[in-house]
Amino acid sequence: MGRVRVFHNRERWNQADVRIYASNRMRPNSDRGGIVQQTTTTTNGNGDEVVFHPGRVRIGATWNQYGSSRGAIGEDWPRALAHELGHYLFFLSDNYIGFANVSGCKVLVGVDGCYGAMNNPYREEESEFHPLNNYWAMFCANTLSQLETGRADWETIVAFYLALAAHRLRTLNEITGPNTLPANLTEIIAIPWSHQLVLFSRVRSVCCRHLATTPFVYNLTAVHVASCLPMIMMMG
After folding, report:
1. If you count DSSP H runs as helices and E runs as strands, how many of each does the chain have, helices first?
2. Residues with Cβ < 8 Å from 194, sequence gap 6 or more?
3. 158, containing H or E segment
4. Burial of 79 (0-12, 13-18, 19+ CB in 10 A)
5. Which end of the chain has fewer beta carbons closer than 10 Å to its terminal beta carbon, N or C?
6. Residues 126 and 174: beta-carbon distance below 8 Å
7. Where are the beta strands (DSSP E) in 74-214?
8. What is the pLDDT of residues 108-165, one digit of tens each?
9. Which among 59, 34, 14, 31 has a CA at the least distance from the CA of 218?
10. Is 160 exposed, middle or buried (0-12, 13-18, 19+ CB in 10 A)?
11. Of 70-74, 92-96, 107-111, which gets the smallest average pLDDT?
12. Are the beta carbons of 64 and 57 closer than 8 angstroms?
C-alpha cells in the first residue's frame, strides 16, 4: 500500500481514502473503483460502458461477521476491510449475491459456491480472489461480479492493473500466505494530533456526532474518552 498517513480529528476528512467511524453499528461499505482521481469511463467484459467516480471506504471502529455490536471477533475487522478494499482498489463486485428471474421478475438472491475474498473473506480458504477457471463458469455465472463486470475477479484486476497480468492465478488458493510482508513496502506515518481535549462534554458531543457521520480515515472507538475523536488515514 506504500505510504499510509494517519490524521486525527477529521483532518483531511474529505481527501481520505478510508473513513473509519466511531461506531460499532456501521456495516462496512465502499465505492467500487473509488480509487480513481476523477470521473473515469471504461468498458466492462460485457461490452457495457461503466463510469467510476472518486469515492472511499467506510467502516466502523469495530466489526464482526455477525453484525453484533459487542465488538470485533478474531480477524473479522481486517478481513472485512480487505474485502472493501477489493471493491475500492480493484474495481471488484460481490460474489455472494446476484440476480435471478423469479416469476418473470429480476430478484436479488444469494449465490453459493463462488468462493473467494469477494464472497466470504472471514474464512481462510476464501481469502484469495477468484481466478477464471471452470469453477467460475459453473458457480459464478449469476454473481454481481459476472453480471456487472463480465469477468472473474482476477480478470478484472488485470484489466485495470496490466502489470499484474503475469501474476494472475488460475486456481483458487494457489498461493499459501504470506503471513508476513515479503518486503517493507508499507510505511505508516502518524500525523501529530494538534487538538487538545478541553472538556469531557465536548468530547462526548464529538462521539455522538460521528456515530452517524460519513480518501483513508480512522475513527477511534468510544470505549475510551480520547477514542471518541476521529483519526484519518490516507494512502499515498
Report:
1. 5, 11
2. 9
3. helix 153-160
4. buried
5. C
6. no
7. 97-102, 105-110, 187-190
8. 999 999 999 999 999 988 989 999 999 999 999 999 999 999 999 999 999 999 999 9
9. 59
10. middle
11. 70-74
12. no
